[in-house]
């Protein structure tokens, strides 16, 4: 009967009586279980650890005892051998007999040999000494045993079969004058019978535990697995301690990344070390078993606790159960719930009867009200506009579906809550609350053409709202009715138009117009605050390479990736702009320390130089940064931008991937550059360029092997201009292409002229620019020059820099092969300065490697330069 009552009254589990009873008993049980669990987790592992330490120590001691027995046997053999005169005779049969007796009577040694003082074998048994010792080893053994009674060797591997290893016991025999006459060498073949294998089998130190013995070099002498013998394990922490002649106990991680407890002992007489290792996890097995049983006990106790709590609760609350269930139904809106089988004799029965009467009255009234409410609700809910009612305290009294949908919730979730429950902007909530109060108190309508509404997800909606006070019959107003129209799409479209007018469509960064506007504002604030504003002008160094070789889509993605890194490495108060192309500008406001600007620039250079992984491609692009400061480098926007741009250009000229602060001297440098560029445009027409020929000598024969054409510029007004000045300008301006074609033609003409004059034919070397390779049909140009000048192609060598080769690998390989087909030689110039790999280099059919002069200059003083140069020469020959 009791069990049936429990099944029928499972709702008692929700009662406070049941929860209170169950809670206190449950807490007591959990506290007890936790105490036992924690105590066992602390105590049991330590006990288990101590037990395993004793076990490993016993195993080590047992192996030590057997090792000492081996030493005792060796000493006994030594003592008995010194008393036998037969061992000092030269009769080989007698010596063989004595050796056989020693081997046969020893439980450890399985072979041996007797040698003279020079290490020459006189007799042997089951061992060929020269298979393990060479002449130097023999001398070493003789030195080690001199003056000793016995000597055990380290592991000796068979030179014929390295998998066969032995340990050698050497016993010197001295005559009455203390002169060594004979040496008995006794062997233990480690792989044949193993050492102490019976002892290993008898050791009981647990699963996955083992012991082993090492010599003074860390080589395994004895191990449960014979195939391990001879392996060096000196990287084991315990073995390292043994090699230091130490004994003890430690916790370590083996080569399989398993934590082990290890006992180790050094045996002085043998110079051996004995190690026993037990997995650390074995100490937790007992704890785990105990914890599993603890879980079973916990489950049983909880079941018993639940059973007792249910019985107690049923007996306590059964008289009021029916009333409780009926009240729950009413609370859920079920006004047709009546209590049946009421016993009206007691007080509770009378209360139940009154409850039934009350429910009947409520049901009748509710039916009438619900009919009217449904009528009004349909009107409100079908309206496309948001409709809601709020009281003077800001609480929602009504909300239709349109309003609930705007907030991202349901009408029932809104009613009873306040605007502050949905809008995190408390200032905005307070303004709205005061406005509502004003409408209610003045009883006057208010139209709001544009206000923001925040939904439950934090999204913002723009609304037009009409607020109307609700006036009661007594003339007072306690609430207001609001009609709202959603104008978010219109506002967003307006904002989108404004955004696209002021931002870059690719990176979503402010454009040049917005940047200048922001810089103007920062300058005005800096004037008032007496602070500094920094302008950083950035340009990506290798962006054109990515665009040309991988397409504009990949270039656009790279610009987007750069934008992400800029945002990640700058403060929110800093302004980032895409100025155009691959140029970015940055404003750093409120600067008080110029060093901070340098730190920011350094960090940006480092971060932007990290590889970009885009669509399966890896790119590395560096950046050059120019910096100008307000008010030091300019008082207005245009001056600051211009000077930052000038400083950026200086950074590019000085190697790229760096930054430079603007200073006034840069303008003069820039002016000089523009002047040289202007003069250069007419230099060919005016005949200002000359070619000089630098001879190449064969260092072996001392004869002339060729010449290299060197371009020189004698400007009519400036005089001689250094190639280091005008060559970069020519490459940057593109004029290197016509100049390079002129150099090629003049060099071929001169070489053909020398040959026509009867001089021995030699090769003339001409440098090719990257732009010549990229922007012209170099094969066609070379063929035309050779045809025009009549020079045989075998007497022309074209030099290409290593950097140009590696930046244009695919096209360069094709071009080189085409040039080689017509007979032209190819040289790699400045080899060693770039980042070429041998994998690509071996695919280039080049004839000559010209080592960069930075290595040649240090060849007599710097060892590294000598090594590198030697290696390159060797590589070129092969």
Descriptive notes:
By secondary structure, the chain is of the alpha+beta class. Among the domains are: 74-189, PAS domain (Beta-Lactamase, 2-Layer Sandwich); 383-493, PAS domain (Beta-Lactamase, 2-Layer Sandwich), CATH 3.30.450.20; 510-662, 2-Layer Sandwich (Alpha-Beta Plaits); 677-846, Alpha-Beta Barrel (TIM Barrel), CATH 3.20.20.450. Helices cover 48% and strands 22% of the residues. It is built from 27 helices and 30 strands. Strands 24, 25, 26, 27, 28, 29 and 30 form a seven-stranded mixed beta sheet that branches. Strands 1, 2, 3, 4, 5 and 6 form a six-stranded antiparallel beta sheet that branches. Strands 8-7-11-10-9 form a five-stranded antiparallel beta sheet, with helices on both faces. A hairpin with a 7-residue loop joins β4 and β5 (165-174). α2 packs antiparallel against α7 and α20 (736-756) runs parallel beside α22. The protein starts with a helix and ends with a helix.
SSE layout:
Elements: H1 2-8, H2 16-82, H3 92-105, E1 111-116, E2 121-125, H4 135-145, E3 151-152, E4 156-157, E5 165-174, E6 180-189, H5 197-202, E7 210-214, E8 220-222, H6 237-243, E9 248-253, E10 259-267, E11 272-279, H7 285-331, H8 347-381, E12 386-391, E13 396-399, H9 401-407, H10 411-414, H11 426-442, E14 446-454, E15 460-471, E16 477-486, H12 488-502, H13 512-529, E17 532-540, H14 543-550, H15 552-568, E18 575-580, E19 583-591, H16 594-608, E20 612-614, E21 617-619, E22 623-630, H17 637-653, E23 659-661, H18 665-680, E24 689-697, E25 704-715, E26 719-721, H19 723-733, H20 736-756, E27 763-767, H21 770-775, H22 778-789, E28 796-801, H23 802-807, H24 809-821, E29 825-831, H25 838-841, E30 848-851, H26 853-857, H27 863-877
